[in-house]
TrEMBL record:
Gene Ontology molecular-function annotations: fructose-bisphosphate aldolase activity; zinc ion binding
Coiled coil segments of this chain: none
SUPFAM superfamilies named among the record's database cross-references: Aldolase
InterPro entries the record matches: Aldolase_TIM, Class_II_FBP_aldolase, FBA_II, Fruc_bis_ald_class-2
Active site per UniProt: 82
Protein name, as recorded: Fructose-bisphosphate aldolase Fba
GO biological process, one term: glycolytic process
Gene name of the record: fba
Cofactor: record remark: Binds 2 Zn(2+) ions per subunit. One is catalytic and the other provides a structural contribution.
Organism whose genome encodes this protein: Thermacetogenium phaeum (strain ATCC BAA-254 / DSM 26808 / PB)
């Protein structure tokens, strides 16, 4: 079917009231796990690569892998840059065929975040690429944040309204209590804030740090306007746990295919479960 933009995928999700998984990849096996899961569930899918993933695999390799996944699949696939922080890097991704980019200016003050996001939107939209912005800081679980300071990182709904109006982003990633990586305790999501942000911006919202968030919370977030759900850690864990298990089961194994093949299958199972949870199964 080939590549489509995130904006197209999210417009259908908006109309259908479901969300689409955006799954992080670093290598061929994970790209294959994602596309096999999407095909098996007849679901649109967003395959995303972070700057770290691009550095690890190489721009040419990662683009070729995702392009091949899209070309050989019969479901809509978007190739998305996850957490682009640098204008040049985002431009390079657009030039190399990404159909959607995230510009994460959340570490800047509001006006600078608006400036850099607006510059990206101007170029990206001119060439038919969609843009996700981030406002408020989405933490890593490793960042020590005192409870009293927790909400200082959250997105202010009024600022979100201004940010979306000024930048013209296609989707917004707000900070409402999720964090990247494995949670130590139960994540506490601020659903009222999420509802308010949705009401004031009207754009599809993106939930980052979604690994380890209970299914009922994910469903509630989707009912309040989340249309893209980012998953990395749950895939990494399933993949690496199987690699470990295979190596322990047979320390003399030297064929990488016998180690990575089963790991790919475990990752695929996790992704299929997520797709069903998000409500996008059968929508392609
Ligand atoms: O949000 C971050 C993603 O999990 C990607 O992580 O920068 O280690 O590739 P990474
Ligand atoms: P997790 O690794 O917590 O699933 O977060 C993924 C993410 O938000 C990628 O942008
Ligand atoms: Zn993220």
């Amino acid at each position: 079917m080939g590549l489509v933009t995130c904006a197209e995928i999210l417009a259908s999700a908006e109309a259908g009231g479901y969300a689409v998984g955006a799954f992080n990849c670093n290598n061929m096996e994970i790209v294959q796990a994602i596309i096999r899961a999407a095909e098996a569930e007849r679901s649109p899918v967003i395959i995303q690569a972070s700057q770290g993933a691009i550095k690890y695999a190489g721009m040419g390799y990662i683009v070729a892998l995702i392009r091949e996944a899209a070309a050989s699949a019969s479901v809509p696939v978007a190739m998305h840059l996850d957490h682009g922080t640098d204008f040049q890097q985002v431009m390079l991704c657009i030039r190399n065929g990404f159909t959607s980019v995230m510009i994460d200016g959340s570490h800047h003050p509001l006006s600078e975040n608006i400036d850099i996001t607006k510059r990206v939107v101007e170029v990206a939209h001119a060439v038919g690429v969609s843009v996700e912005g981030e406002l408020g800081r989405i933490r890593g679980v490793e960042d020590e944040v005192r409870v009293s300071e927790r909400e200082a990182f959250f997105t202010d709904p009024e600022e979100a309204r201004i940010f979306v109006r000024e930048t013209g982003v296609d989707a917004l990633a707000p900070s409402i209590g999720t964090a990247h990586g494995r949670y130590r305790g139960k994540p506490e999501l601020d659903f009222d804030r999420l509802a308010q942000i949705r009401k004031l911006t009207g754009v599809p919202l993106v939930l980052h740090g979604s690994s380890g968030v209970p299914g009922e919370d994910i469903r509630r977030a989707i009912s309040l306007g989340v249309r893209k759900v980012n998953i990395d850690t749950d895939i990494r864990e399933a993949f690496v746990a199987e690699v470990r298990r295979r190596l322990e089961a047979d320390p003399s194994e030297i064929d990488p295919r016998r180690i990575l093949g089963p790991a790919r299958e475990k990752a695929c199972q996790v992704i299929r479960e997520k797709i069903r949870l998000f409500g996008s199964a059968g929508k392609a």
